Amino acid sequence: MTLYFDTKIEFLDLAVSTISSWHPNEPLFAVASFSQERGGSVTIFADTGEPQRDVTYPVHATSQATALCWHPEKSLLASGWEHGEIHVWFAGHREFASVNGPHKAAIVLLEFSEQGGRMVTADAMGLVTGWRCDGQYQFLTMFSHDLREALVLVCFRRTVERSEVREEMANLAKAAVAGDEIALDTLTNWRPRTAARGLTHAGVRDNHCFYACTQTGVVYYINQGGACTEVMKSSGATIVQMLWHPKKDAVICLMEDLTVTLYLVESTGLLTELDRVKMSGHGQGRQGGITWTGQSLAIITGDLTVRIWDMDRSDNYLLKMDLPSSSGRSDISTFPSNSNNFFSSEGSTETMVSSNSRKSTSNVAKYHQLTGSNEVFTCLAFSTSNQTLCAGTSLGSLYIWRRSGACFVMAPEEAWQLTNISSVSVRGAVRSCQWGFTELAKPCILVNCLSNVFMLKEQPLLARHTRELWAVQRTAKTLQLMHCSGRQANVQAEFPVTSIALNELSLILSSGRAISSYSLQKIDKPDFKDEFDEVLEKEQAGIGGTPSSSAVTSSSTPLSVRLLQTFPAECLALELYNQNIFSLASSDILVYSVGGVVLHRILASDVEGKIIGMDLSGLYLSVFTMNGYVKAYDVSRHDPKLIFPSKSGHDIFDDFGEFILVKCNSAGSHLAMVIANRAFIPQSTIYCWDFERNNLFDYDLKEMEMEMEAQEKAECIPVRIFWDLSEPRLLGVEIKSMRKKANASQTSSSQGSHFVESQILIMFYSVQAGVEHGLKLLESQVLSPMGAQLLNMCVPHVIWLNINTVEEHPLKDFTDLQQCDSGTRRQVLNFSLHVAEGNMDLAYRLVRSIQSKVIWTNLARMCVHTQRLDVAKVCLGHLEQARSVRALRQALEDDDLELEAKVAVLAIELGMLEEAQELYKSCRRYDLLNKLLQSTGRLDEALKLAETEDRIHLKHTYYQKAKSLSESGDIPGALSMYEKTQNPVQNITQLLLLENHPMAMKRYISGISDPKLLKWWGQYIESSGDMDAALAVYHQAEDWFSQVKILCYLGKISKADAIARQSGDRAACYHLARHYESVGKFQEAIMFYTRAQTFSNAIRICKENDFQEELWSVASSSRQRDKAIAAAYFEECGNFKHAVELYHRAGMLHKALEMAFESQQPEILEIIASELNSESDSELIQRCADFFTSIEQYQKAVHLLAKTKHLERALQICHEKGVPITEELAELLTPQKGEERDEASRVSILIQLGELLQEQGDYHSATKKFTQAGDKMRAMKSLLKSGNTDKIIFFANMSRQREVYIMAANYLQSLDWHSDKTILKHIVGFYTKGQAFDSLANFYAICAQLEIEEYQDYEKALIAMQEALKCLEKLTHAQHAYNNLQRTVRDVKTIMEIQQALRAGDNLAVIGSCRNMLIKPELPPIRHSHILAMLVRALVYAKQYTEAGRSLKELAVKDNSWSAAGLLDRGLVQKIAKECDLDFDLIWNSGRQGSTITTNSTTVTSSTTSGLDDEDDDDADQADDEEIREELH
C-alpha cells in the first residue's frame, strides 16, 4: 500500500508559477515563475522541493520564461524567454549561459531529440532554428526556417526498435515477469542501486528528424540535414498534440475538435492516415489531452471522464470514477484503524481498500456530484514504471488510477482502479502534471496549478510491529500506536513521515531530513495466567471452548506518548535498539541517542563502497554496500562489534549483481538474503547463509511453484523477509507469484496477460545432527489480494498488514493454542519443525502430554506422508475416532492391500482425499480410487477413470451414475447411463414401469433400436394378448423365432416359412420343423431340422420313413455321432459304399477299412490311407501297405509307409522294387532328430537312403543324406561323382575334415587348374588345411614339370620346386625325395644360368656348359632336347655351323617333335641348312612327326593320374618315399 505526500514548492519571493519541467532521468525539476517586483525567473529544485544551492538563477524584470526543456540524458536545462533569448544551465555550473540565436520574438517551443543531439527552438513569428550540442556544451546553429506563422508543437521522430542494452537497462525488473509491463510493479518496486541510473542509448542512433505543426494546420517535416518539406495540410481543426507511437513508426494526433487521428510515418516523412476517431465531448482539444498508457491511448474530452482507446482491439472504454470499498474478515485477530483524512493508492501488487478512510460511500457520492458541476479534466500523465495514470481537473483535484495485473478481469476497464482523489490546490485549475523520479527512484508527480506548483511523492504505507506494540501510519503525518493490552494513541508528527523505528520504550520518526524521538509509557505485560489456566482446564474437562480469536478489548486509557527531541539528520532508513537510533545516510550509518547526539559512525571502506541498506533484528545489525559486500554487527554494546569480516557477494554467489534484502536472525548466526543477478534482475531464490560455518542454503521458489502448480511455470519474487522475534530458525518470506491468466490468449496487450498471487512462506533451517541442512518449508499462507502484506513473524502468529489494519494469523499447529505459555509454545513449535523434517519419533515425544486435537491431527496427517501407520493409530486414538481406528486396523490386516493403499485408507479417514487419490494412483489401485470417487460424489471423475484405467468396473460406474441421476430427477440422463450398464433392460424397465410411466416406456421404446429392449417390449405386449402389435415389435427387433412362433400360432405358415428361410435363424427353423412334423410334412420338416442343425431329428425321420437319399444328404453335413448312426443304417441296408464313407467321415477308420477290404473299394481305401499319420494304428498301416503291395502299387505303399514313419520297410520296398525316390519322398524317408528311435537306427536309415539315391544317380540328395548321417567321407565321394565343382568346394570348406580336404584337392587337380587361378588357389588351400604336404609337394612337382615341358619356363618351375621343398621339409619320412628334388633344383638353376649367359652373348660359356650337362644322364624334368636347343643356338651365334648341324641332328634323334614344340626358330634352322648344305624341309619336318603322339601320350597320362587321384582315399594315406620319388621322376 502506498501514499502520496504533497509538498508545495516555495519560491524565493511571492512569485506565481508559469511552466515547469522534470528531468527524464535525474531527481531535478525546473519551474518558471513571475512576480511584479522581480519579473520572470527560472528556479531548479531537487526532489526534496528545495532549490539547488550555489546556482545564480536568471531574472528578467520585463520578461518571463516561456519554454523549458531538459536534455534527455545530461543534467542540462534550456530555457526560452519572451524577448527571444535562450539560457542554458549545466550541472556543476553556477551561472546560466546565454546562447546567441536569430530569434527576436518570444520562444514558444523548445525541444530536444531522443538522445539530445539536436535542439529545436521556435518563436512566435514562426522562425524555427536547429541547434547541435557538442561535448563542450556549445550550441551551434545548424539551420533556420522562417515558416511565417506561429507553431503549436514540435515532435521529434523516435527510434522504435530499441537496442538490447537499452531495453535491458530500461526494463530490469520487467524481465522477472516475462516482459509483462502491466504486471511490473505487482511483483516488486525494487530498482537497482548499483546500476547506472541514466539509461544510455547504446546501439540506438539519434534521429534528428521532426515534425512542426502550425496554427493553420500545416505540418512540416524537417529531416536530418535540416531540409523542410510540407507533408500535410489539415483542412479542419489545428493539431494541438502529436505523440509518437511506442511500437511502430506512426504518430497519433489530437485536433482542436477532439478528433484523434493515427498516421503511418514513411521513411521520407510522409503521413498516411490509418484511423480516425471523432470524440464526443465538451470544449476543445488541448496540449496534454492525450497520453500513451502502454499501447493504449488515454484521452480527455472536456468533461470529467477519461476514455481509453485500445487500438489493437479496436475497443474503447471509460475509466471508473468510484473508489473501491473494503471487505473485512472475521476469522483473524484484527486491530482496526481510526478514521483519517486521506486516500491511499494501491500498493505495488494490491488494490487499495480503505475500510474507514474518508467515509468511502460519502466520498463517492460527493465526487459523482462533481460530474454535474463545471469541473473538467485539464491534463493527463502516465507513469510506465508503476502503471499509474493521473489526471488534473479545473478545480485543482488530482485523480489517480492504477492498472493492476493482480487479479482476473472480465473486461479491460476492470484492470483500472481509481485509487486516489487528492486536492492539491484550494483554488485554481491544474495546468499540467508530469511524472518524475526521486533520488531513490521512487515515482513522484509534479503538478503545476494556476499560481502554485506541488510535488506529490509516492511512498509505501509505514508500519512496525513488536510482540507487544505496533504502529501503523494513518496519514502523511499521523501514526497510530496500539498495545497488546488494547491501549492505543495517535501520534501527530511535525513532518511527513518516511521512516519508522519502534520498540517498547521509544518511537522514532523520520522525514528523510529530520528525526523525531518519542518516549512511550512502559506498560506491564498483562497477566493472563488465571484466564489461560481456566481456559485450559475447561478444554481438558470438555466444558469449555477455544478462546476467542478477536482482539483484546481496548482499554479506555490512551497510551502515553511524549516528544523528546527533533533534530536534523539525513535518513534513508531507520532502526532502533534500546535508546540507540541507527540512521542510514547516503554513504554511512550514524548512531544517535534519542536526544540527537551522535554516538557512533559505521563506515564502509572504499573497496566495499557506500552503505545502501541495513536491517536490525534483535541486537544484530546487518549491512550491505554498493559494491556488494555484506557484514553484521552486534549492537548490544556501546560500540557496535563486527561479528564477521565483510564478505563479497561475488564470493558467496555464482551469479551476483546486488543485494536487495539482508536480515540477520535473532541468534546472530544466519543471514537471510535476497539478491539480484548480474543483469540486476531479482532472483527467485531465498538464500540463508550460515556465516559461522560458511554454509549457504538456498530455496528455489520456481521449483516450489512447479511442485504446487505442475500445470504451469510461475515466476516468483521474494519481496519481504522477517526472522521470528524469538525463534532463530523460523523465517517468514512474502513472495509474489506471476501467473498466466487462463484467457491470456484473448487478453489485450493493454490489459496484461498475468495476474499476481501473494503468499507467505514460513520456512526454517535445520540444526539437528544427521538431518540434511538447508531451508525447508513449514507451511504457507495465502495473502488477501486486497492489499495485505507480511509485517512480522511472532510465534505463534504471522503478522499481516491488511491495508492499514494489523492482523494476527496463527500457524497451523497453533490454531487452538494461541493463548499458551512459552514452554508449550516452544514444544509445539519444535513439534512442527520435526514433522516438517519427517522426524516422527521426536515429534511424537514432544506432544504426548499436549491435549490438542490440532496437534494430533497434524501428526496423523504427517503419518500419511511418512507412511507411519503405527503412529497413526495412536493419533487416531487421541482424536477419539473409533471408526477411523477400526478402518485402519482392517486395512492393516488385509494382506491383499499394498502399503500405499493402506496409507490411503488413513488419508481418507483424515479427509486428505487428494493425497488418497495420489496414493491409489501410485500403487495402480484404480478400482479403489474409483470407489473413492463414487463415495465422494465425484461420479464424473469416476467415469473418466473407469473409461481409461478401471474398465472392469466401467458398467458398475455407469450404474452408479444412473442411480444418482435418477435420484436427482434427471430421467433422460439416467436412461442414457442405464443403456451403458451390464443389464440395461432390467434397469430401464424398472425405472420407467415402477415409476408408473407406461406411456413414457412406450415413448422411450419407440425411439430406440436395442434388440433386447424391443424383445422385452414385444414379450410384454404378447403377454397382454395383442399378437399383431407384438409381431410388429418382434419384426423391429429382428426376433425371427418369436415372429415364426406367432405366425404358426395364427396359422400363417407360408409367411413363417418365408421368414425362416430368409433369416436362417435356427430357433425359428426348429420351431417350424416341429410344426411341419406334427402335420405330416416330413420333407419340409427334414429340411428345416437340417437348417436348425438338429440333425438327429432329421435322421430319425429319414430312418422311420426309409428316406435313404435324404438320409445320405443329411448325414453328410451332420455331426460325427449322427454320421455313425446313419452309416450303421446303411450297413444294415447293404449300401456299403455310403456306409464306408460315413464311417470314414465319422472317424471310425478301422470299421471303414474292414468294410472297404471286404467290399474291395481301393478308391476309398486310398482316400483313407491318405489321412493316416505316424500316430495312426501300426497294424492298420501295415494292412494298407500290404494291400497296395498286393496290387503292385509300390509307390503308394512306400509313400504311406514313409508318411507314417515306417521307414525301414519303405526303404526295403524301394530297394527291392526299384521305386524311384523323389525329393519329396526322400524328405519323408528322412528320420528327424527327436523322433522315437535311437541314433544308430537313424544313421543306418540315412546311409541306406543315401546309397539308394546314389544308385539312382541323385548324387546331390545322396550327399545331403550322408551329411545328415554324419558320414562326410561318403558324402564327399557322392558329391565328387556329381562333378559339381562349386558344391565340392563349398562342402569341403564347410566340412572342415582332413580327408575331405584331400579328396577335394585331388578332384580339383583333374580340372584345368593351370588356366583357372581360383582352382589352383583352392588346391593349395585344401592340401594345406588337410596337412597333406606330400600331396602338395607332388602337386608343385607336377606344376614344375608342366612349366618345363609345355612352356620351357624354368623360372616358374624353380618357384614351384622351391614350394615343394618347403612342403617336404615338414615331412619326416621324405628325406630321399627331398634330396632328389634339391639335385633337380640345382640342375634347373644351372640351365637358368645357361639361358642367362645365352642372352648375354657368352656363347662359348654356353657351349661348354651345355656339353657338360649333356654328359649327365637325363633325369626328369630336365630335358636334353632343351639343352641341345640352347647348344644349337649358341653354336650358330658362334658361327660354328658344322657343330651346330651335328647338334641339330642329335636333337632330331632325341626329340622328334622339336620343331613342333618351338625349341628352335625356323630362321635359325634355315641358316644352318644353308651353311651346311642340308635339306631344310627334311630337317624341319623331322621335328614334327611325334607331335600328335606326344600330345595323346600326355593326355593319357593326365587321365591316368586323375583316375589314380580318384581312387579311394585310404590308399592316399599310404604314400611313402618311393611314391614321392616316382611322382617327381
Keywords:
1529 residues; alpha+beta; five-stranded antiparallel sheet; four-stranded antiparallel sheet; 52 helices
| Termini gap | 124 Å
Number of strands: 61
Helical proportion, percent range: 25-40%
Q: How would you sum up the global shape?
A: extended
Structural class by sheet pairing and helices = alpha+beta
What portion of the residues fall into strands of 2 or more residues?
Answer: 15-25%
Helix count equals 52
Which sheet architecture does the biggest sheet show? 5 strands, antiparallel
Mean residue pLDDT:
76
Radius of gyration of CA atoms, rounded to a whole number: 59 Å
Which consecutive residue ranges, at least 5 long each, have pLDDT under 50? 162-185, 196-202, 326-332, 336-368, 527-555, 744-752, 1491-1529
Structural commentary:
This protein is of the alpha+beta class. It is 38% helix and 24% strand. The longest helix has 26 residues, at 1375-1400.
Which secondary structure elements does this structure contain, and how are they paired or packed?
Blueprint: E1 2-8, E2 16-22, E3 28-35, E4 39-46, E5 59-60, E6 65-70, E7 76-81, E8 86-90, E9 97-99, E10 107-112, E11 118-123, E12 127-133, E13 139-146, E14 151-156, H1 164-170, H2 184-187, E15 210-214, E16 218-222, E17 228-233, E18 239-244, E19 250-255, E20 259-265, E21 271-278, E22 290-293, E23 296-300, E24 306-310, E25 315-318, E26 333-335, H3 360-369, E27 377-383, E28 388-393, E29 397-403, E30 416-423, E31 430-437, E32 443-449, E33 453-460, E34 463-465, E35 469-473, E36 478-483, E37 488-492, E38 499-502, E39 506-510, E40 514-520, H4 529-541, E41 561-568, E42 573-577, E43 580-584, E44 589-593, E45 598-602, E46 611-617, E47 620-625, E48 629-634, E49 641-642, E50 647-648, H5 649-652, E51 658-664, E52 670-676, E53 685-690, E54 695-700, H6 701-708, E55 715-723, E56 730-740, E57 754-765, E58 775-782, E59 788-794, E60 797-802, E61 805-810, H7 822-837, H8 840-847, H9 853-866, H10 869-878, H11 882-893, H12 899-909, H13 913-922, H14 926-935, H15 939-948, H16 954-967, H17 971-978, H18 984-993, H19 998-1006, ...
Antiparallel strand pairs: 1-33, 2-3, 3-4, 4-5, 6-7, 7-8, 8-9, 10-11, 11-12, 12-13, 14-15, 15-16, 16-17, 18-19, 19-20, 20-21, 22-23, 23-24, 24-25, 26-61, 27-28, 28-29, 29-30, 31-32, 32-33, 34-35, 35-36, 36-37, 38-39, 39-40, 40-41, 42-43, 43-44, 44-45, 46-47, 47-48, 48-49, 48-50, 51-52, 52-53, ...
